[in-house]
Amino acid sequence: MRLSSATLGLLATVAFVAASAVAAEAEAPLTLEQTIALDNVSGRIDHMAIDVAGKRLFVAELGNGTVEVVDLQAGKVAGRISNLSEPQGVAYIPDQDLIAVASAGDGSVRFYHAADMKPAKTIALGDDADNIRIDPAKGNILVGYGHGGLAIIDPKTQAKIADVRLPGHPESFQVDSESNRAFVNVPNAHQVVVADLEADKQAAAWGTAGLGSNFPMALGGPGEPLAVVFRNPPTLAVLNLATGGMAEKLGVCGDADDVFFDAKRRRFYVSCGEGAIDVVAYAPGLERIARVPTSKGARTSIYAPQLDRLYVAARAGLLGSRAAILVFRPSPQVGLASKSSFVTSSSRRNSQEAHMLRNSLAIGVIAAGISIVLGRSASAGDDIDAGALAKALSEASIPLDQGLKASEREGQPISGKYELEDGALQLSVYAMKGDKFTEVIVDHKAGSIKKAEPIH
Fold first, then answer.
1. What are the E-state strand segments in 18-55?
2. What is the structure's pLDDT at 353?
């Protein structure tokens, strides 16, 4: 396609003005949406669990000896479990409607009926019961404890059925349902241990390549990355699931205690006691895109993809500030093509013209999920199959702002869209360098550039 110099000049001028306006209004990757007060809670707050269907959050308040039950819909505390000895880990078991609480002080795992908070059974593990996970394949409960144990508990009988011995106290761990393995942070041994959950034994141990204090861990799911966060020095590392080798690493905020992977936006959330959340894009390749302030000591969090919210526990301050749950809404909202992109399903020639010159001058400038269209956009009579495009968008793994950022290698991005090209979804970005324009095709799953073609 050929554009006149006058049209190119007008395009550049309007695009830069619009892009500046959009950038000024663009939402941050995380926006504080709500603060839920936790009254009469002092000391350190540890891990959390969520009841998605019931919209309840369970908060282990180690320093307070309690577990708070938060009604997320009402935005307030709905109940409390008291008289616990340093509760650290908590899990919600939906099939039995049970809450499991692991306590460091007495080494117990206590079960409570979630409907009324009345106690059920108690299992004595002996020492320092800590993180809890649910095996998604078998439904068993796994609890790290003591000087090197991973207890496996049947939630139906609420009895321990097996143990996996480890070389030190386990911190965060994740269960891979496909391989029936658990990956376990053992910081005292400077290892990430691989546990075989069929044989109930250690299968491998990976060194930490000179990094220390590996506490948080995230596993995004089948085909997704295994991430470990170290405190010394503060580093986020992505590990190879076959060898344990470090594929990527990046410096992050200090005193991290939780990390979660947002598969929809291809990013990590690292919550840190220094008073920040690091938002790290993964394409693959790691890049910090924001450091969001919280409060000193707010190092534990939980991301609920079903609710699309990140919950951060902020402890009470020395100057009298109350403990609270900080509710963050991630941006952009992924999959809302009508709100975030200027899209067509026409041929290559018509696609380019619809993208930049449809009938007069229509320019779609997208930044952080916000769309501004100047001039007259496509009319109802144009060949746009919204249903096919909406269906195809389910394949996309990256938001538009990540596609724009990837295209910066070819120049300043001025517009971007998801479109159907010969029936296949593609992410097309127009970039400008000097007086030259390039169409950049970005892989909508990996976030990397597939090809770049000059526009003459």
1. 30-38, 48-51
2. 37
| Distance from C-alpha of 24 to C-alpha of 68, rounded to nearest angstrom | 39
Task: For residues 349 and 159, give the distance between their C-alpha atoms in angstroms, rounded to a whole number.
Answer: 66
Which has more confidence, 43 or 410? 43
> If you average pLDDT over residues 275-303, what whole number do you get?
96
Q: Interior CA angle at 206 toward 200 and 208, to 5°?
A: 135
Query: Taking a C-beta distance cutoff of 8 angstroms, is the pair 326, 59 a contact?
Result: no
Which DSSP state fits 327?
E
Answer yes or no: are the C-beta atoms of 268 and 218 closer than 8 Å: yes
> Global pTM?
0.71
In Å, how far are 126, 255, 323, 366 from 65, measured between CA atoms?
18, 22, 14, 48
Read off φ and ψ for residue 123, nearest 5 degrees: -115, 130
For residue 423, pLDDT beyond 70: yes
Inter-residue contact 444 to 427 (CB < 8 Å): yes
Report the share of the chain in percent with pLDDT over 70. Answer: 80
User: What's the CA gap between 279 and 270, in Å, rounded?
Assistant: 7
Residue 252 contacts residue 235 (beta carbons within 8 Å): yes
- The residue count of the chain comes to 456
Q: Hey, where are the domains in the chain?
A: 5-26+335-455, 30-330
User: pLDDT averaged over the chain?
Assistant: 83
Q: What is the CATH number of domain 30-330?
A: 2.130.10.10
Cα–Cα–Cα angle for 47, 185, 234, rounded to 5 degrees: 80
When pLDDT is cut at 50, 70 and 90, the band that residue 343 belongs to is very low
Q: Is the pLDDT of residue 111 over 70?
A: yes
Which residues share a beta bridge with 144? 150
Give which of 356, 355, 361 is closest to 384, Cα–Cα: 355
Residues 293 and 58: their CA atoms lie apart, in Å, by: 23
